[in-house]
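Predicting holo structure, adenosine-5'-triphosphate bound.
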Amino acid sequence: VSVPAPAVEQGRSCVFLTSSRNSKKMEAGRVNGTIQYCAHTNCCVGFFRIIEGQPVAELQGCKMVVGGCLDPACFTSTTHVDYIRCECSSNLCNGNITWNAEEKQPQLKHSSYSADDKQRLSLPEESLTSLCSCHISKQSDMDLTSMELQQIVGSGHFASVWQGSYQGTTVAVKVFPTWCRQEFTAEREVYGLPHLVHSGIAHFLGAGRKSDSGDCVLLLELATCGSLSSFLSKNNSDWTTTLKLAQSLSEGLAYLHSDFYRHGVHKPAVAHRDLSSNNVLVRDDGTCVLCDFGSSTILRSCAGPHGWQRYMVNVQGQVGTLCYMAPELLDGCVNLSSGWCLIQGDVYSLGTLLWELLMRCSDLFIGCPVPEHRLPYEEELGASPSLEQLIVHVSERRERPSVPKHWKLINMGCLLQGLHDILLDSWDHDSDARLTAQCARDRLVSLAPCCSI
Ligand SMILES: Nc1ncnc2c1ncn2[C@@H]1O[C@H](COP(=O)(O)OP(=O)(O)OP(=O)(O)O)[C@@H](O)[C@H]1O
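Done. Tokens:
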């Protein structure tokens, strides 16, 4: 691949190549011949098709989505079908790609979603017939010698999360002790999936091992407002802020659940399986991002129900917060013949998260105090309900978090009715009757104009 003679300006310049099919790429920055000057990002990207063992550029330019890319060179150790891709952070770095041809992955011929599932997930026709990437891609470790840990920002069952710096960039560093290597590997695998870059998903910058302790490390974007749970316990929000949080949350989940095939690479649907307000982060622009994919299941087309089944754990051993778990997961009545049930379990959790958000919206409590931040069912069952209590309350009695009466009774136009319906349709007892995350997102978007509270 030949690199054009550089005519580099200040800021990032990338080699530019596109086709009429990808005219969107032009929006990422001004183009002059074969060079693009990036408007918002420091990253160049390149997609190459491998033809007779050689990479032939198909698409090059500035990265469309703002986010980090820590490798100055265009390098990949992963080959998906006949395509390779890189992101890099030096001028014109996307002109040439270096990759390890030995690691070319096997091709698969069919997807094992049922026809029904495909329809419900709105899979593009292309993904039904195309080859899919059904391998665990081997990712190279980053050199972490220049990484610094500054202060701890959170911790969970498996890892501690630090604010840190890496090559001058402020990052979040999720450190897994050596005995949590399995959790690290599972989460890294999800972050490493093709096309997992989305504004609603924590941006993954790389992974490696600490040289001193051998601890495994994930580098992520730092969400400066912390978890949604800590955000809600400190702040209540007006309608506009609440809606932005709710829309971005459902958008991130819809993207995670999506299954598509782009540039020759398959993005499988992923079920998060541990959604809670601790596993949703808030950026300083007021949007939510999903994180903590350690319990997630990648619905790889080749894995089929048996592949998914190995991820199912007894709820007694479930690390997620029980109060977000769907009734069918609580009582164990789950049909594993389709990945659909895992996806719809996430939609139930989304409903409870939306409730948690809305209960802190000051515009929905005019004339009365905004309630303190509460977890779903906290009012009815206390802060740490047992599995047995939840089975009785949620699965058997079919109770749901209590929605303030005035949301249903006061006539405030379409807004409150719309909100109430989104909740009811997300946490429906019948998982098949629930919305999809995409549908929840669309309904939230449609609420915005009818809001005059
Ligand atoms: N990228 C980030 N930016 C800011 N804070 C973060 C980030 N990632 C995680 N945190 C904080 O660290 C906490 C723990 O992170 P995370 O849930 O990923 O850890 P975990 O050990 O996998 O947790 P769990 O027990 O839920 O499995 C989060 O609740 C959040 O407060």
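Residues 104-133, 303-319 have pLDDT under 50 and may be disordered.
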